[in-house]
TrEMBL record:
<dbReference type="GO" id="GO:0009116">
    <property type="term" value="P:nucleoside metabolic process"/>
</dbReference>
<dbReference type="Pfam" id="PF01048">
    <property type="entry name" value="PNP_UDP_1"/>
</dbReference>
<dbReference type="InterPro" id="IPR011268">
    <property type="entry name" value="Purine_phosphorylase"/>
</dbReference>
<comment type="function">
    <text>The purine nucleoside phosphorylases catalyze the phosphorolytic breakdown of the N-glycosidic bond in the beta-(deoxy)ribonucleoside molecules, with the formation of the corresponding free purine bases and pentose-1-phosphate.</text>
</comment>
<dbReference type="GO" id="GO:0005737">
    <property type="term" value="C:cytoplasm"/>
</dbReference>
<comment type="pathway">
    <text>Purine metabolism; purine nucleoside salvage.</text>
</comment>
<dbReference type="GO" id="GO:0004731">
    <property type="term" value="F:purine-nucleoside phosphorylase activity"/>
</dbReference>
<protein>
    <recommendedName>
        <fullName>Purine nucleoside phosphorylase</fullName>
        <ecNumber>2.4.2.1</ecNumber>
    </recommendedName>
</protein>
<keyword id="KW-0808">Transferase</keyword>
<dbReference type="InterPro" id="IPR000845">
    <property type="entry name" value="Nucleoside_phosphorylase_d"/>
</dbReference>
<keyword id="KW-0328">Glycosyltransferase</keyword>
<dbReference type="InterPro" id="IPR035994">
    <property type="entry name" value="Nucleoside_phosphorylase_sf"/>
</dbReference>
<comment type="similarity">
    <text>Belongs to the PNP/MTAP phosphorylase family.</text>
</comment>
<feature type="domain" description="Nucleoside phosphorylase">
    <location>
        <begin position="22"/>
        <end position="268"/>
    </location>
</feature>
Length: 270
């Protein structure tokens, strides 16, 4: 893997990806941030050596480099999921490459379902902790200790200082920003009523199918990491309506300006 990472990194450096400070992973329906960047370079995933290729139709599949609020950033415009048939190592490979390129901070967004009935569709949730229910770990492979400490401490996986900054910025801009626990499941099927009840019992406030593998690897690489969920539906098992993926994406787009405002303000202050 070290050889692959070096090969990928060299390719991107030769393409002009020079010393980014911050990496960003954009989730489902969340891509308008690109319009706020001064884009300098972009490369399709299928042109990058050793990179997976996004197979979900609403994930664009480009790595983008540019300037946002005076900082050099690299953005994953489309992410990978285990439910697409990738291994946890495939899903998190771009995080390792971004670290090798030079980032010190990783910001992640996703679309998720609200289990906490005090949270409403279209609001944001700052992830303060998570439940890994995907049945695997991106660190469970031979030779992982060559890339970092095998037994990574996950007592505080989401950077406290960045979380505090996000909360302060949300208050300043009058944006509702809940805090909660994110459960990451395998998917791609949505949850049953019984599964929603179980997730609530074990302490989850929102549920999705991503993010946790990237956060684990970010901690493995000693990156500062923070993540925000856009709550795109309300998962009340006693009043459950059929899921409409188009509606989820539309809700994400409607809520996205609030997320962009927070991310831009955070980056400006980093």
């Amino acid at each position: 893997m070290i050889e692959y990472i070096n090969e990928t990194t060299d390719y991107l450096k030769n393409k002009g990806f020079e010393n980014p400070e911050i990496g960003i992973v954009l989730g489902t329906g969340l891509n308008q941030l690109i319009e706020h960047m001064d884009v300098l370079k972009e490369v399709s995933y299928n042109h990058i050596p050793n990179f997976p290729t996004a197979t979900v139709e609403f994930h664009k599949g480009k790595l983008i480099y540019g300037i946002l609020e005076g900082k050099k950033i690299v953005v994953m415009h489309g992410r990978f999921h285990i439910y697409e048939g990738y291994s946890p190592q495939d899903v998190t490979y771009p995080v390792r490459v971004m670290k090798q390129l030079g980032i010190h901070t990783l910001l992640i967004s996703n679309a998720s379902g609200a289990l906490n009935l005090n949270f409403k569709k279209g609001e944001l949730m700052l992830i303060e902790d998570h439940l890994n229910l995907q049945g695997s770990s991106p660190l469970a492979f031979k030779g992982v200790s060559l890339l970092g400490e095998r037994f990574v401490d996950m007592g505080e996986p989401y950077d406290i200082n960045i979380r505090h900054q996000f909360k302060t910025l949300a208050e300043q801009h009058n944006i509702t920003l809940h805090t909660g626990v994110y459960a990451s499941v395998l998917g791609p099927q949505l949850e049953t009523k019984a599964e929603y009840r179980m997730l609530k019992i074990i302490g989850a406030d929102a549920v999705g199918m991503s993010t946790v593998p990237e956060v684990i690897v970010a901690n493995h690489l000693n990156l500062k990491v923070a993540a925000i969920s856009v709550l795109t539906d309300e998962c009340d098992p006693d009043n459950l309506n059929p899921i409409n993926i188009e509606d989820i994406i539309a809700t994400a787009k409607q809520a996205e300006p609030k997320l962009i405002l927070l991310v831009k303000a955070l980056i400006k202050g980093l």
